[in-house]
Amino acid sequence: MRLLLSRPLVCSCSLLVWLLLAFFPCAAQSTSQESVSLDDALHQLADRISAIPNFHGPCRLQFLQDSNFAAETAKDWQELFRKDLESRHVSVTEDPAAPVLRIGVAETPTQVVLSASARVAEKDEVRLVTASRTSFRAANLPVAPVRLEKQLVYQSPERLLDASSLWNGSSLGLALLLDREGELEVLRIDSAGAIQQSVPLSAAGALLSRDPRAELSLQAEAVSVLLPGKSCQFTWAAPAETKCHVVKSSWRGITVLTPSCDPGGWKLQADGSDWTTLDLLQAVPENAMQRGSAAILSDFPGPILSINGEQNPSSALVVTRNLRTGNYEVYKITLACGN
Questions:
Q1: Cβ distance 57 to 96 under 8 Å?
Q2: DSSP string covering 41-69, please?
């Protein structure tokens, strides 16, 4: 286990599109050679999907998109695309057992490439459409431009449920909530990634139930762990005095970041609840007047398991599970001023 410096992550949707172009040249040849608007491109893609032989749904949509594209268009296009499909008698469902229709969006220097891929009768069906990049520029950007910065700060093969910053205590570092085969444990990690303290909670009756929710919060030297119907508290100085009591669980609300250039705040939320696919973190303006005008997205290598607001109002900690390596990872998310 160790602290890590940030490293660039490959955008999954870009990779998907280029793989499609490489391995399905017939699909690439069917791409429109004319520069069309984004709306027209979405309509064309829906037309081509509905024309796939023996493909009528119900299907479950999975969207993979470049962060730049998402920041300029928010998520309105996804709902419009769903309606486009259903108007063409391709039914859409949220059933996790339904076949997946993957919709990818990637950018070239001059174009946006939209792709659709599905498995039909043991055959991969792929459709591509292109649109000019100049056709989807957002008309209104937030008053205060901001950007989302992401830094990988910790990873471990052990199952992480939540993470909190120690900035409000006497030392820097992290507090981590671990699930070790149903037994919970809190670790105190210093800024170099070394374990300074380990506090098992099973002796106090803190066991993880079938409900996987668990939240960690810190205030000075006091530590609280919230479980379904139960809350446990201890201090770093006296961990043996851990006590748990029955409570009516009130779970953490939406994390709102407030950078210095925008006191109105930006809400952080995960893109989906499917723990078997890549996830997106979305930051949207909390101000209702700005809602829908812009969104900032950042892709993650797996499902987002928790979002914990830090003591710094412009930062948060995000826990995810990397589907490629199997490791659990903690990212520091910062909403910084400037494009």
A1: no
A2: HHHHHHHHHHTSTT----BEEEEEE-HHH
Q: What is the pLDDT of residue 134?
A: 62
Question: Hey, what amino acid is at 186?
Answer: V
Query: Do 50 and 22 fall within a single domain?
Result: yes
99 plus 145 within the same structural domain? no
Cβ atoms within 10 Å of 138's Cβ, excluding its own: 13
Does the model's pTM come out above 0.85? no
Q: What is the pLDDT of residues 258-272, one digit of tens each?
A: 988 877 888 898 866
The residue to which tokens 């509905």 are assigned: 50
DSSP type of residue 144: S
Q: Which of 74, 103, 135 is the last residue of a domain?
A: 135
Return the ∠ at Cα 138 (arms to 110 and 107), rounded to 5°.
30
Alpha carbon distance 214, 251 (integer Å): 9
Within this chain, do residues 87 and 153 fall inside the same structural domain, yes or no? no
Provide the Cα torsion 79, 259, 316, 276; round to 10°. 20
Q: Are 205 and 244 in contact (CB under 8 A)?
A: yes
The one-letter amino acid at 131: A
